[in-house]
Amino acid sequence: MKLRELLNRAVKPILNERFGDLALSVPEFDDDENEESSDAVDELGSLSGLGLVIEYENSKGEKSQRVITCRQLSVEAEKHYLKAYCHHRKALRTFRLDRVVDIFDPTTGESLSPVQAFFAQYSPDKVTRSGLSWGMSVGRRADLIAVLNALVFLARCDREFHPSEMSCLEKALTNFWIRLEVPGDPDFDDILAYSRRLSPDGETFWLALHRFKEDSILESVFRRHAQMLIEADGVIREEEAYWSLEIDQFFSE
């Protein structure tokens, strides 16, 4: 299986026990979300890879809960839309934000409402305009988000997130800060807490690799810690071996 064939898959977020009965299916009614083309490769959005549970109401007033992995925010005709991978439909969907009734952190189970206030932290197709910049420039924060998404994708490709793999993320963060000479000290707690909520899909991973290929330092930081992460728990699983080979092939082309 080639890398491009996996672009539209996403790793399901780790779910809190309160969502234990949330089956990966939705009621048998018509969706009014737009299904996205699987051929398009978009730029990374400001919340790419972020896992959420949403309660959504369609145009007929019918409600369902969805596990999603965010892709991008957009504004069309003054309406805000969230493009995301829906784990229930197993496809990319676009949700109208004014129809999202509630949102939850999939890991802790806590409500993140009010909905509009939560998404106001993010600019459509841009880096956040709130305190989530971690003291970095727009471009540098985008670099860090790409590194975090790529490493978290690898950490979760075998459906597990071992504590030693989280330690690798912390080392990658330190190395990123030093190699790219980011001013100040990294907010480890906040950045690592953010990374735990990521559940990037294949396209997010693919776009991150392309970003690294354009910057030798980013490539070095990623490849060093990708290998470290794959070997972190002492067992190299089939999925990890596969992605390790794909990464080597990608950067050798």
Automatic annotation (TrEMBL):
Coiled coil: none annotated. Residues 52-103 form the WYL domain. This is WYL domain-containing protein. It comes from Erythrobacter litoralis (strain HTCC2594).
